[in-house]
Structure formats: structure tokens, C-alpha cells
């Protein structure tokens, strides 16, 4: 029996070359694995969708995400928190992706408080930073890109979560965490935001060790701002713990 037929879950035809751990197998013949020098690939169809890892290896169809910790958050967050909690007492809110919890109307950037003005400045800075790496902004003079944005507040308490969703009709979406709350550290994936692999056929390769078609989770922190493409599916697992998880979601569309 050849080495190829001994690989669990894989039956290769005779003469198939299987390499692992630096050893190549062709039937029962062993040979040292070739070590070609990595070549610089030619231009990709769209270089903005690739990430070069070096040694001839690239990631294709890369998805950009911006993650920032805002340096002035400790000054701004208390005012945002107090205003959001006060408005939640006077407004029944709305239910879109949230299961439990509270969502405000999408007029938060028009609230007449200095903290809302600061949030607008942060969102604009995040979009400008993303612009340095996005083909959507190519050919535009620096500082001339215009976009419209709107935002809404979210309050999640114990057991509340957000269903899987995306933000159709927009270009960039994001979330800013005013108060990450006190999630129970003994509970795995407590209140994390999870982004799903946007490649639907990735699940066709269920091979151990190749973690395709898995989600990527981010643990929220007070003062964290995320910006990502609006088409990227995401959800928020149930928040479990005392207090509130308070966040602000927003959408941006280029003009």
C-alpha cells in the first residue's frame, strides 16, 4: 500500500505526489521536497484585493477592516453614556437586528451635545484612514472626498444580542463602543462581535487545519472603533453580565 492511501480520509491515485513536513511521497518512493525560490508574482487582476505575505505566498480577496482605540474616549464616553441612557427612558426605540435591548433612531449625529460632534470627527478620521488603502478613493485629491453618515445607539443588557445582518445600500459601516460593560469572563465568546467569511464556497474544503469558512470574533472594549465594508455579514453574541453594553453603530456612503 502506498503512502498516499494511508492519509486518513484521502485516497489518492497511484503516483500522486503528497508532500508533508518537508517530505514528499510518490507511491512508496521518498524524495526530498523541492524548495524553489519564491518568485515575485506578476500584477494581480486587482492588487487591492491581495495581501503579500512574502516567500511567494499571497492572501487573495482580502477584506479591509479598521480597528482603533480612540485616545480621548475617557473624556467623551461619560457624556455619550448619560445621554443614551436618558433617551432610552423617554423613547421606546426600535427593533431591527437587536433581540432585546434598545436601539435609538438613526439621528444620533444630530444630537445637540459636544460628544456627538466629537464622534463625527472620529468617524471622518476613520474614513480618511481607510481611504489610504481603498480603491474607492483612488484619483481623488486628498481632503476632497465627501460622504454622508448616520448613526444610532444600542443598549444590550443581560441576554440581549444582535442577529446576523449586513448593511445593504451603504459603503462602510462601523461601531463605536461607549461602554463595553462587564461581561462574565467565565463565559466563552460573551458579547463578542463576529464577522463571517464572505466566501460562500469556502465551506467546500472541510479539512482539519484549514480554518476556512470560520468567523472572526473581536472582543469589544470601551473606546474601540471598528470600520468595515457594509456587505460583511456580522452578528453580536449574547451579552451576559451586569450593567449595560452601550455602543453606537453608523453607516457611511461616499458621494
What does this structure look like?
The chain is an alpha+beta fold and about 260 residues long. It has two domains: about 5-60, no CATH class; about 65-255, Sandwich (Jelly Rolls), CATH 2.60.120.620. The chain is built from two helices and 16 strands. It has helices at about 75-90, 115-130, and strands spanning about 15-20, 25, 30, 50-55, 55-60, 65-70, 100, 100-105, 145-155, 160-165, 170-180, 195, 215-220, 225-230, 235, 245-255. It has a six-stranded antiparallel sheet. A hairpin with a 2-residue loop joins strand 2 (about 25) and strand 3. The longest helix is centred in the first third of the chain and has 18 residues, at about 75-90. It is globular and about 55 Å long. The N and C termini lie far apart (about 65 Å). Residues about 1-30 have low confidence and may be disordered. It holds the Pfam family 2OG-FeII_Oxy_5. It comes from Vineibacter terrae. This is 2OG-Fe(II) oxygenase.
